[in-house]
Structures are given as C-alpha cells and as structure tokens.
Specification:
Helix content: over 70%
Largest sheet: none
Number of domains: 2
Structural class: mainly alpha
Oligomer: single chain
C-alpha cells in the first residue's frame, strides 16, 4: 500500500463541505458574541473550534473503520486491513487531541453545567452517528444528526465558551436553518437515488422514498422562511433577518427545480444542486457579514 492509496481512502472518510459548515456555524455562535459587543477570548475560540471539527473527523474515521470491511473497494484484503488499522490509529490520535484540548477548557469551565451538556452532546453525536449498534449514518439518518450538530449544538457550544450562557437570538437565527440544511442534503441526494437503491446504500432520500423526499424538500424550504418571518415578528433584529431575504430568490429556484422533477419534466441536476448550495451559502455569507462586520 502506497501513500497515495492511503490518502485516497482517507479522503473517503469525511466530507470537506461538512467541515466547512461546522466552521461556519461555529463562527455564527462566536459572531453573536461580537454582535452583542462582548469581547472574544481567542484561546477558547480556537480550542473549541478544533474540538468541534475533530469530533466530526473522529466520527467519520471510526465509521470507516467499522464498515469499510463490508464495502466493495478496489483494494485487496491485505491493503484494506492496513488501511483500517491506520484509520483506527488516526481515530485514537484525534480522540487524544480532543481530550487534551477539553482538559484545557475544563479548567475554566469545571463548574459550568452548560459546557458539560454541550460537550457531552458532541460525544453523544459520535456514538449515534458511527458506532454500532446505532450507526445512524449507515442506516441513512446520518444527515439529520449532522444537521442538528451544525445548526444547534455547534453554534451554542461556541457561544457558551465565550459567555457561559445561552441566548434566545442564537436560537432564532439557527433553528430555521435546520430545515434549509435538510433541504440541501435531499437536493444533493436525488440524482443518485436510483444508484443508491441499486447498491443498497442507505441515504435519507432512499429511506424516505423519492416522492416523500421531494415533498419534504419543498415543505422544509418553505418552513425555513416562514420561521424567519415568525422570528422577525417575535423580535429578531431586521439585520439578522436580511440573510434570509437574500437567500430567498435562490431558494425559489431550488424549489422550482424540485417541483419540475416531481411533475415529470427533464431534471436539470446541475441547476438543482447549484441552487441548493447557493441558497445555504448566501444565507451563511450574509449572516456572518452582519454578525462580524455590523
């Protein structure tokens, strides 16, 4: 086994877009601290960010270790055993880094019940996402867990590290994005639906069925903007509602493309995928802009 083969297999372990989403959601949580005019502790910021990223990396590594043996690959059996062993070593190293950085934070948060709850939530995520008998990723429900991690746990964790408290505004900002993120995952999965069924690959779309998945995609898109409207009525500042307004036209394209496919028109997969990526990217960009550069 050469280094290129190992790196290729290592790349299969995790999705780079998820690492980016985790980083952005963490910045949203910390950005609210800056938006409120409070100072940001750089050490806590970087320690927390590394912990959140490494928990995801660890979950994908251990998932690969458990289930690569049952996955058809071009690697021979001997190479596969070596790859799995190396992946497990990386998993242990990742957990060690998490433990060390957690200890550094725990010295300051030993009396913080919120810190313990949200740190434990990362551990709970790892167990449910990757490790038998739960292994929700292999069962097709991993993206729901990822959405909860990205939208809820991670930004709250970032905020708590700075202020040891929770804030209603952060919930109003992030909760609607959960539905937008699920819509993104469903849109990205639809093209490979037939192939996934043929290969017995469980995804959220295959578990729901293409008809139900497409309906939920459109319902969740609408739910995102309805919830932002409710948040604006409740008292969310207009500056923090604006990202949803900028994302809305692109989400309309995403909705339209999914509706066309459901009506039997020829799929335009690239436009569907680009619009789903564009809607959540525009939302994230303007949200970060308004939080950090007010």
């Amino acid at each position: 086994m050469n280094i290129k083969t190992f790196l290729t297999n290592l790349r299969r372990c995790f999705r780079l877009e998820i690492l980016l989403m985790i980083t952005i959601s963490y910045l949203v949580g910390t950005g609210l601290v800056d938006y409120l005019g409070r100072g940001i502790n750089q050490q806590k910021f970087w320690l927390g960010l590394i912990i959140s990223l490494f928990f995801y990396i660890a979950s994908e590594l251990i998932n690969y270790y458990f289930f690569s043996a049952s996955t058809k690959t071009k690697d021979n059996e001997f190479d596969l055993i070596r790859i799995r062993n190396n992946v497990f070593v990386l998993f242990v190293v990742t957990l060690t880094i998490i433990a060390v950085f957690t200890y550094l934070l725990y010295r300051e948060f030993s009396s913080s019940f919120l810190f313990l709850i949200f740190w434990s939530s990362f551990l709970f995520f790892l167990l449910l996402y990757s490790i038998p008998p739960f292994n929700l990723k292999k069962r097709g429900f991993g993206d729901i867990l990822l959405s909860i991690l990205i939208v809820s746990i991670n930004p709250m964790f970032a905020y708590i590290l700075q202020l040891s408290d929770v804030h209603t505004t952060l919930f109003l900002i992030t909760f609607p994005v959960f539905f937008l993120l699920i819509s993104y995952f469903l849109a990205q999965m639809l093209e490979g639906y037939a192939s996934d069924l043929k290969n017995n690959k469980n995804t959220l779309m295959t578990k729901l069925g293409w008809k139900t998945g497409m309906k939920l995609h459109n319902i969740f898109l609408l739910t995102t903007f309805v919830l932002y409207g409710i948040a604006a009525i409740i008292g969310l500042p207009a500056r923090l509602v604006m990202p949803a307004l900028f994302a809305f036209p692109i989400s309309c394209i995403q909705f339209w493309e999914m509706w066309r496919i459901g009506e039997g028109y020829k799929p335009r997969w690239k436009l569907l995928k680009i619009s789903s990526m564009g809607s959540i990217s525009v939302m994230a960009y303007f949200l970060l802009f308004n939080l950090w550069l007010r």
